[in-house]
Write a structure and sequence with these properties.
The protein is an alpha/beta fold. The chain is 50% helix and 11% strand. Strand 3, helix 6 and strand 4 form a beta-alpha-beta unit. Helix 4 packs across helix 6. The radius of gyration is 22 Å and the shape is elongated.
């Protein structure tokens, strides 16, 4: 049984206003671990002070895209933002995508000079209105050397005091190797902020789960996780937010189907082995303990969220 009706019943069962563990880059569910908080502050500083070029790397599912969406939300009307998700294009097409995101009409297809001139006119006009121009490129590890060199042209747009284009590139760790290419040395010298996002610690993951449950609830989420369930989730996810979401979402579905609001090790085991067979995990039915420090930590976080 799947679909909107099933999801509505699932949410009602746990007293939720919406799904807490959907893997979409919703800034409302941005969870500030120390490193994510630091990264967001540095990115906002880079943009608002017109510093130019920032780089964020992290493994798949580490929260890079959600971080960028949260930045966009914070900037609000103070910035014009182009988000590029498709990086498997030519260098010319990349510039055309950026122009299109800004609503810049390209009357002469393939004319790079006129395209760059139009982009320069756009960013200069935005500068006179005291509005930042931000280009966010996701999946940066897929960019070619030629595409990076085209991007460098954008970083050359500047006044005596400020960079006119604020460039944020997100990518997986292999992006760092690409950027070591000798041809990209001039671009590397322009990076003013870099951070690598690591997986969450066990404590952060526990707070992360509680945070999302409270944020999605109608006041008090009617669900609890046992200590061993949390241990299993962390062991399988290794602290990667996207995988945590997958396991937790499926665990809530299993709990609902079993008419239980206690997510214990058996529920998580079923979620992993039955709903995520691609992980190729062995059954872990031997875990069955409820309670303990981790569960207490989760309950404390839930209680704190309920009082907010």
């Amino acid at each position: 049984m799947t679909g909107p009706l099933f999801e509505t019943m699932y949410e009602t069962f746990y007293n939720l206003a919406g799904p807490p563990f959907h893997n979409t880059p919703n800034s409302r569910f941005f969870f500030e671990t120390e490193q994510h908080k630091e990264a967001l502050a540095k990115l906002e500083y880079t943009v608002r002070n017109r510093r130019g070029f920032a780089l964020i790397t992290g493994d798949i599912g580490s929260g890079k895209t959600t971080l960028s969406r949260t930045l966009i939300s914070r900037l609000g009307q103070d910035a014009k933002t182009a988000v590029i998700n498709n990086t498997r294009v030519s260098s010319q097409q990349l510039l055309e995508l950026i122009a299109s995101e800004f609503g810049i009409e390209n009357s002469v297809a393939g004319d790079k000079v006129k395209l760059l001139t139009s982009i320069k006119q756009f960013v200069t006009h935005q500068h006179t209105m005291d509005r930042a121009v931000v280009v966010i490129i996701d999946e940066g590890q897929c960019l070619t050397i030629d595409e990076f060199e085209e991007i460098r042209l954008l970083t050359n747009l500047e006044t005596e005091a400020h960079k006119l284009v604020q460039l944020l590139i997100l990518g997986q760790p292999e992006l760092r190797q690409t950027l070591r290419h000798p041809r990209l040395a001039p671009l590397i010298q322009r990076i003013v902020m870099y951070m690598h996002l690591k997986p969450m610690s066990f404590e952060d993951m526990t707070r992360y789960i509680a945070f999302r449950l409270v944020r999605a609830s109608k006041g008090r989420p009617n669900v609890d996780f046992s200590r061993e369930a949390l241990r299993m989730i962390y062991a399988r996810s290794e602290g990667v937010p996207r995988v945590v979401n997958l396991v937790c979402d499926n665990a809530l579905l299993v709990g609902y189907s079993r008419n239980t609001q206690m997510v214990d090790s058996q529920v998580v085991d079923a979620a992993i082995t039955q709903m995520l067979p691609n992980l190729d995990l062995e059954s872990t039915d031997q875990f069955g303990e409820v309670g303990g420090p981790a569960a207490d930590m989760l309950e404390e976080e839930l209680d704190h969220g309920r009082r907010l």
